[in-house]
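Morning F.,

Quick status update on the modeling queue. The single chain you submitted on Monday has been processed. Sequence for confirmation:
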Amino acid sequence: MARLAADLEAAPAAGSLAAALARSLGDPRLDVAFPIGNRLVNGDGRPAMADGRTATPLVRDGRTIAVLLHEPDAVLPEELQRELGSAARLAIENERLRAEVLLRLHDLRASRARIVETADAERRRLERDLHDGAQQQLLALSYDLRRALSQADGELASVLRAGLEEVQAALEELRELAHGIHPAILSEAGLEAALRTLAEAARVPLEIVGCTKERLPPAAEAAAYAVAVEALERTGEDGLALRAARHGDTLVVDADGRDVAPTIHLADRVGALGGTVAATPRGLRAEIPCA
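Structure tokens below.
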């Protein structure tokens, strides 16, 4: 207990309590967990698991403020309760408050990720509905008009030809709309194919300098594609150079072009997955978790 008090004197840093207790009690597996709501979390705000360890509650004023997870013979509960001093109690309070804040942060991130995932799923559904519904009906109408046109002449042929042109225009608009909602090729063939298709239809030059060929989680691919689309919309007439490479558990997207800069919308889109978007001297870089 004397070593513990010395370790925790002054203002203990976050995370110091478990380490100090582990040293003092000679139990390297010791951890400190905190009951928050109906959950038990560690100092990082993540779920705490006993993993075969004994759980010893630390009680203050009749309320459990923390739980020690330790080897069965490492702690004498009555002695621990009696000997814990003010430094340890301060560390417990600091750790508990930090764990509560971090738990809320993890919950918020998980909620944002679920919102993005739900929105992406809805976009995919709308794209399929447009493709399988309205587009197929227009294609059938186009086929019927072509058949009728092959057997018509004079004024009727002119009317049918004009109608066919309008149907073709509607089909093109519908394809552009469906592609803007969610490009089917992104789901079917992956990020590289989607980016190269985007480059073919871009209003300004889009050079795909390099792109990972492996399939990644749908949310990561959708976020990377969103980065490319927004960067392309904001770049100047000189165009954009794009790289997308996987580094470990992170997909790094570099978009180099004039007037390309991160936006709040893009930061929120990538941040919902736990990633970041930052300005670079040449444009922007997005780092997207893809584990």
